[in-house]
Specification:
Elements: H1 18-31, H2 39-43, H3 49-60, H4 71-84, H5 88-93, H6 100-117, E1 120-121, E2 126-127, E3 144-147, E4 189-193, H7 198-215, E5 222-226
Parallel strand pairs: 4-5
Antiparallel strand pairs: 1-2, 3-5
The structure holds a DNA duplex.
DNA sequence: AAGCAGACCAACCGCAACATC
DNA sequence: AGATGTTGCGGTTGGTCTGCT
């Protein structure tokens, strides 16, 4: 029988105090991340290792951006969600300084609603019938995105199948494709059309290769982000 | 000003994948 | 190869905040 991840009766739960935060920061700065299971004891924290990891990743990490999402980030989340479904860590990985939890929360509290308002089904990113047409990006500001693959669901990673239904329904298109085999066109090219900004291009390349690698894709629908 | 409802977000839980023995 | 341990992920919960009546 496996031991629980922590001795639950001896651990604190709930909100973190400043002192706990400081202990965690100090410890990680001195010893680095990892070894979460033994970290709490070593750092003098009455917390479960999982809890420490989460606190560090979602809140204490120095490279976190925090604050409101900009329009570009919103659009990128929407587009990536269309491709990846609820794979928040992958999506967050393309948003420097953002965490999966943050992206997930933002999606659930803002973006979902926004898409629904625009007449788009947030689960499959398709226009809903008998719904008002999206006010083509008026709501989302100045960014326009075009996914060249007609069915943006093309990229559904293997994991979503037989994954106990945990991974998003956002990529479940079997109803549109009775044989259950969508016409997979799995690569993604993100082109950010924006005034000269060399780092954007670098970032684009990085995005492209990372996502292509992740999804094992072959050919490439192009996602154009006009900023 | 008080009460209520909805929104937001930090944190927890359970599970799966991966690593190690 | 199988058992066990660790880490990471996504779904969900619950406390707090905010706006409305």
């Amino acid at each position: 029988m496996r031991k629980p991840c922590c001795d639950k009766q001896d651990t604190n739960k709930g909100a973190w105090s400043k002192q706990e935060d400081q202990k965690l920061i100090d410890y990680i700065q001195a010893n680095g991340e990892g070894r979460w299971r033994t970290l709490p004891q070593a750092a003098g924290l009455l917390r479960c290792g999982k809890s420490c990891r989460l606190r560090w990743i979602n809140y204490l990490r120095p490279d976190l951006k925090r604050g409101n999402f900009c329009e570009d980030e919103e659009d990128l989340i929407i587009k990536l969600h269309a491709l990846l479904g609820n794979r928040w860590s992958l999506i967050a990985g393309r948003l420097p300084g953002r965490t999966d939890n943050e992206v997930k929360n933002y999606w659930n509290s803002h973006l979902r609603r926004k898409l629904i308002k625009m007449g788009i089904d947030p689960n499959n990113h398709k226009l809903r019938n008998n719904r008002p047409r999206p006010q083509n990006h008026g709501a989302s500001g100045s960014t326009t995105a075009i996914l060249s693959s007609p069915e943006s669901h093309a990229c559904q990673p293997e994991k979503s199948q037989g994954d106990n239904g945990q991974v998003s329904d956002a990529g479940s298109y079997s109803e549109e494709n009775p044989n259950g085999l969508p016409d997979l066109n799995l690569d993604l090219t993100i082109t950010i059309v924006s005034p000269s900004n060399s780092t954007v291009e670098e970032e684009r390349k990085e995005n492209q290769s990372a996502i292509s690698t992740e999804l094992g894709c072959a050919s490439s629908p192009t996602l154009l982000l006009f900023t």
